[in-house]
Predict the 3D structure of the following.
Amino acid sequence: MGYQVIEDSDIIDGLSVRYLKIFGIWKVINDYRTSEKRNYILKFQLIITLVLAIPSIIPQYFSFLVIQVDIQKATILNFHSLPSLQVLCKLLVFWFRIDSLCKLYNLMTKDFLDKTIPDCEIESVKHIYTKMSKRTNIIVLTACIVINCGVFLLVLFPSISVDYILYHTGNMYEVTTGRKKISTGWYPLPMDKSPWYEIILVYEGLVVLWAGSFIFVFMCLYYQLLMCLHAQFIVLGSHVSTLKIESLFEELEATDRIKNVEMYKKLYRILQDHQKLISFADELRTVYNPLVTMILGMGISVLIIAVFQFLLGKTGDPMFILRSFMFLLYQCIEVSMFCYSSSFIETASSDLHFAIYSSDWYKAGTKFRKAAQMMMIRARKGVTLTAIRMYPINLETIMAILQFTYTVATLISRFTE
């Protein structure tokens, strides 16, 4: 690969990567950029994730063949297995696409558009980067608080009756007997007897802590790249709109030919950086497609289950209802982060069309106008993330997901009544 280590001084102004550093992901990225090898930190994380996640996922699907299950119990058995499956999928995407991701991390450097930005625009560019960094840091911090609150509630306040999982169907809130466990998972063990109950309780606590931590850190990793791509498109568009003949040559007595040559040279450098951005955006979309498809698919499932349990739990255990609400809030935040960032990228990339029109193209020569026209055509269609290869992700996706989630959960709830 041959890329250099990304130093703190290279990162976009104000963007915080301390979460990635705490969990060792930053070192994983820099080590792979220089050596093209996955270091011991990533291998250790993958092994621990597999050891913790697989036993919490596979038994849930075998449980339908062993214990009595109705529609409410079927949904609740999968409630806590989906987040484990999410973090496993995110780590596997990172493992298998680490070469592309390490290349994409060039988007986080403030000199990414090295051919375009002149020294006189450094301050305005810095302002754009700082504004984007503040917004990104706030959203990441919000996600951190929500996920940590959810983990805190799950670990410290177990509320799932073992007797309900093993012996009952119907409304789980009517079952008041039996010990309480953290997750809704079933295991091929005597869960209601010691020491198996204690072992399962400790195991589920470790799964929740591990999954909660890595759901957040990979959410931070993937989301920051999207916001950096958005910022780079804004910076490029801001520079394109300043292509004014008068401002470029106000202190230079030059002929029209010289002005046209200089304008074309600047536009040519912009075209090079635009092509660079487009190529990075295409690669990012390819890498993120399975990730976004997984997040939307599992996100919809978790949202439906959470709303469904919330509707059924109106007179149930308040702590379980609060936990369901935290799951719902977390999933809404994760889906929204990807949909909003994709919408930002789409807007910023398509705004280049207007930015070119705002330049002095009508005063420039034919060569400049033809090149500008070509760039306007390429920038007409905005860049977005996609799910299932073709479905664009944007703000409309959020409304469609929420509407679909509530409709399905309401239908299931009425069916059970």
The chain is about 70% helix and 0% strand. The chain has a mean pLDDT of 82. The first helix runs from residue 18 to 22.
